[in-house]
Write a structure and sequence with these properties.
Elements: H1 2-21, H2 29-32, H3 40-53, E1 58-59, E2 71-74, E3 83-89, E4 96-104, E5 107-116, E6 120-127, E7 136-142, E8 148-156, E9 159-168, E10 170-174, E11 183-188, E12 197-203, E13 209-215, E14 225-230, E15 236-243, E16 249-257, E17 260-263, E18 293-299, E19 309-316, E20 322-331, E21 336-340, E22 348-353, E23 359-366, E24 380-388, H4 393-397, E25 402-408, E26 411-417, H5 428-434, E27 435-437, H6 440-444
Antiparallel strand pairs: 1-3, 2-3, 3-4, 4-5, 6-7, 7-8, 8-9, 10-11, 11-12, 12-13, 14-15, 15-16, 16-17, 18-19, 19-20, 20-21, 21-27, 22-23, 23-24, 24-26, 25-26
Length: 447
């Protein structure tokens, strides 16, 4: 701000000086603040675009994906000069047009036009799939309200060639086979005619497109979240997560094996039963070790009608084997989770207690073993976690017995150990170290 004010002062001083030195210098305030003139290249490009618009075409930019501008500048052919890729909609049998305009002799000329059917251009991605310095165009076409179609084009000598086609629900561009070049994986939900599947496309150095397919879980009803990451021992993978019939959540884990693309989490019945869980919590690198872990929800014993779960997190390897990382309890209502010690397994239950204004409380209870008569003792409350809000939250965090965990926004998180006379690990240091804040996308599926 200080530099801006200095700049304004200099401008006005300069204007005053010019006016005082000679009556020949007349400069208006509007001229002082006029915008820079457009470059010659921009004006030439606009002329070419106007030529297309004059035919009755309208701008039709991609409706989703990473590139959504009506005109995009990309060096497709690797010559160091940006081509202009412009998106239009006209009338006729193939109303969708993608114009590729090249710089030639200081001006832009239309080099090629890709035409497509449908109601809109859904997306476009630019990716050098074989390392030859030329980017392939991965275009999604919106064929109807429910049907998307993907085409991969190669531009050679100002002429596009279609390398691959596939219907899709979601597209992933990722080096799934680990050869150093990104592949395209088209994910498609099942229809009345076809089962759900993942189709992988790879462009080899000799310009040949190879493809392979693998089924997605039977019963997959939606694709809500797709992430890429590593399995144990560093193998790349795609995690496809969505609703399963009955309302559960399921994760298909796709990775590359010597036989091709594989759904490593699917069993002999074609369903990833090992990742099936009762509510929407999604895969993530929960322990920040560079490996994506997938949760499995386990229902806790409870006297309440409300169902409470803990989450056992597993790291998978390329062969579908899994190893448990740890167990967590997630409180989505209050925005936190806690890593649970191993000796808490099958020995705890939880319940809510939100009777005090400005205090949202979760209570952990210990499930006592049966006594000598075979009767089970009632659960023993041993820990409270508080989410405190309001003007006096600082004072309430300091109530005798409570200790502060974290502060986030207008919430203070605190804890209180009620007793350590239980046969599990309970101490202040462990609770502070194991208490974490939630990332919203774990609960919502936002990528």
């Amino acid at each position: 701000m200080r530099n801006y004010r200095k700049y304004i002062i200099i401008i006005f001083c300069l204007a005053a000086l010019l006016i005082s030195v000679s009556g020949c210098f007349r400069i208006s305030t509007d001229e002082l603040y006029s915008l820079p003139q457009a470059s010659t290249e921009y004006l030439k490009l606009q002329e070419q675009i106007n030529t297309v618009l004059a035919t009755g075409a309208e701008y039709a930019p991609p409706t989703s994906g990473p590139n959504r501008q009506s005109v995009q500048l990309k060096d497709i052919d690797g010559d160091g000069k940006n081509e202009a890729i412009a998106f239009f909609k006209t009338s006729g049998d193939e109303p969708l047009k993608i114009y590729i305009m090249k710089q030639t002799g200081g001006t832009y000329q239309t080099a090629d036009v890709i035409e497509g059917d449908g109601t809109a251009i859904e997306s476009i991605r630019y990716e050098d799939m074989d390392g030859d310095g030329v980017s392939e165009l991965i275009v999604g076409w919106q064929m109807s309200a429910v049907l998307l179609h993907m085409s991969i084009y190669s531009i050679k000598d100002n002429q596009h060639i279609t390398l691959a086609d596939a219907n899709f629900t979601d597209l992933v561009v990722y080096d799934i086979d680990g050869d150093g070049y990104n592949d395209v994986v088209a994910l498609r939900l099942p229809s009345a005619e076809l089962p759900g599947e993942a189709s992988m496309f790879s462009l080899k150095s000799e310009g040949v497109m190879s493809s392979c397919k693998v089924p997605l879980s039977k019963g997959l009803e939606s694709i809500d979240r797709v992430i890429t990451g590593k399995l144990s021992f560093g193998a790349p993978a795609i995690f496809v997560e969505g609703k399963y019939s009955g309302g559960d959540v399921i994760t298909d884990i796709l990775s590359w094996k010597t036989t091709g693309l594989a759904n490593i989490s699917a069993g002999a019945n074609g369903i990833s039963e090992s990742t099936l869980r009762a509510y929407a919590i999604y895969s993530t690198d929960i322990n920040k070790d560079g490996i994506i872990e997938t949760p499995s929800a386990k229902l806790l014993e409870s006297a309440s009608e409300t169902k409470y779960y803990v989450n056992e997190w597993y790291a998978f390897d390329r062969d579908g084997g899994k190893a448990k990382v740890f167990t967590t309890y997630h409180d989505f209502n209050d925005g936190w989770y806690m890593i649970l010690p191993d000796d808490w397994t099958d020995k705890i239950t939880v319940r809510r207690e939100d009777t005090v204004t400005g205090e949202r409380t979760l209570i952990f209870s210990y499930l006592s073993e049966a006594d000598g008569t075979g009767k089970e003792a009632p659960p023993v409350d041993f820990l409270k976690i508080y989410a405190l809000s309001g003007d006096n939250k600082d004072d309430r965090a300091k109530i005798t017995g409570r200790f502060k965990l974290l502060e986030q926004g207008d919430i203070i998180y605190a804890a209180e150990i009620l007793t350590t006379d239980v046969n599990i690990t309970v101490n202040k240091t462990m609770i502070i170290d194991n208490f974490k804040l939630l990332y919203t996308d774990w609960a919502t599926g936002v990528m």
